[in-house]
Amino acid sequence: MNLHPAQRFTAPSAIQHGVPLKELMDRKLVKLIGESLSDCVPDFDGKRFQSRATRGLKELELKDRALNIAHAMAEQLPSEFDKLAPLLIKSLGPPLEATENNGLAPMFYFPHAQLIATYGASCFESGMLASL
Fold first, then answer.
1. Which of 19, 21, 35, 111 has the maximum number of C-beta atoms within 10 A of its C-beta?
2. How much is the CA Rg of the chain, to the nearest whole Å?
């Protein structure tokens, strides 16, 4: 059984003393997000995405890392949010069967949330659908 990239994202069960949350937004996360987008976006270039999304990542804090990844995602998605939203939703993977004991695993979706907040604000219906 092949697990969706979001299901392969490993994160601690809780915030760890002395370990910044920003470290969750790393090359491994970028690679997994690229895989999830490659599976449902025609002509998505995973290597180009990884190169763009990791550029300057180490110097950024948590929110800026997520936003940097979001911008890299947007560069290869349709510019019209109404066309982008269905692809983004499809890339999210299967619905969660449970939320208990997921720990910090939902951080996988922080770049997705930043993409919606940045590019979907003017498209209320699509933006709300994508944020569910």
1. 111
2. 14
Classify 96 as helix, strand or coil. Answer: coil
Residue 96 is encoded by which pair of tokens?
Answer: 């969660």
Amino acid in position 16 = Q
| Exposure b/e, 55-71, CB count within 10 A at least 16 = b | eebeeeeeeebbbbbbb
**Which pTM does this prediction carry?**
0.90
Going from N- to C-terminal start, the domains of the chain cover 23-92+106-131
* Angle of CA points 18, 60, 81, to nearest 5°: 120
The span from the CA of 89 to the CA of 87, in Å, is 5
Residue ranges of the chain with per-residue pLDDT less than 70? 1, 123-132
